[in-house]
Structure formats: C-alpha cells, structure tokens
Amino acid sequence: MPPKRSAPPATNDDSSADPPRSFKKTKFNELKQGQWISRLSYCKIKSIDATNTNPVAVLENESGFSWSIGGNIVEAETFSPDQYGTTSKVTSTQLAEILTQQVGDTVITVRFTKQAKPEDVLAKLTESGDNLVNIVNDKKGGKNLAKSLLVGEERDLVGYVIRPEPLLGRTKMVDLNITAGGKDRLVDHRTIKHIIFKGTKYELK
User: Fold this and answer.
1) Residues 202, 194 contacting (CB under 8 angstroms)
2) In CATH, which of 2.30.30.520, 3.40.30.10, 3.40.50.720, 2.40.10.10 is domain 84-116+151-204?
3) Chain segment 83-97, per-residue pLDDT in tens
4) Which of 23, 32, 120, 140 gets the most CB atoms within 10 Å of its CB?
5) How far apart, in Å, are the Cα atoms of 3 and each of 7, 47, 88, 92?
C-alpha cells in the first residue's frame, strides 16, 4: 500500500495584493535602452499652472508619489470621470453591462442609491415626529413611508472596479475620494442612475 502523501503547506500568498511601496516592481539598474515598461496610476490633481504657454499639472497617485505632467499629455492620454461630451440613454441592464464588461481599469463616476442604514431609517422616523401615527394609520401614507424607509440616499462614487459580482447583482469598487479607512464599496446594479466613462455619460432611461 503506497504511503499517504502529505498536503502541501498552507501559504498566505495573495498575488492580487499590492506590494509595499518599497518593493521594486522593476529594477532600474537592469533596464536597457529600447526596452518597454508599463504603468497604471489613478491620480488626483494637486495643482494646475496654466499661466505658461505649455500648462502643467501636478499629480499625486494612490501611493503618494507626485510628479508634474504637461497639459498636452493629460489631454492625449488620460480620462476624466467628470467630463463628458455626449450623453446616451440606456436601460438598467445596459448600465450593468457597461460597469461589469466595458469599464475595465478606467476611472469613472457612477451614481447609484446606497443601501438604507438603520440610522437613516431612524432619522426619517424622527422627522415624522408627532405625525407618525397619522401617517401609519393612513393606508397611502403608510405605504409611502415604508417605501421611503427602504430606499437609501443617492451618491456619486469616483473610482475604479475591483471585481464584478454579476451573480449577486453588484460590483466591488474603490472610492478614490475616501481618505481614511476602507475604500471598498459595493454598487448595486439595480440602483445605478448614470455612469460617466471615457467622455460619455450613460443615463438610465
């Protein structure tokens, strides 16, 4: 009877995790003229100097690195999640397809409805005050109140996709405007109102 094989040791390796800032993705002293390299950065505009003939912007990426870049390069090689030249009316299904199948690693703006939180529900009930009993006793008023309690607030998320979760009807994204704590947010495909992506605003019909 052959001996039992032992299971391979467990590891905590996560190839999807970002390396520490000190990690060298490319060894500069081993580069040679004519070779290619690539870089993907999500950058915040720190300042703009448009006083000269050739305007310059100072950028800062998620890792905290800053550098200057010419306005001509910005216009030729970057996308803004705020600017758009065309508007397209699409269905809810098409909005979900754009987010999960087309956006890729581009920074976008997506407007959606957040899930209602307990504190939001409590605030709405408090706003009703002494009139709460009358609202609940009124059939139409009670239905409207119940519906409003289940709906969260609309918000705009500027960021990029981590991974779509189509079976769950949602997409996990990074919110670039969050400066402290976890930046991951879930976008419910059913609540998307619009997406600004590569110069086009896709609006729900």
Assistant:
1) yes
2) 2.30.30.520
3) 999 999 999 999 999
4) 120
5) 13, 67, 65, 58
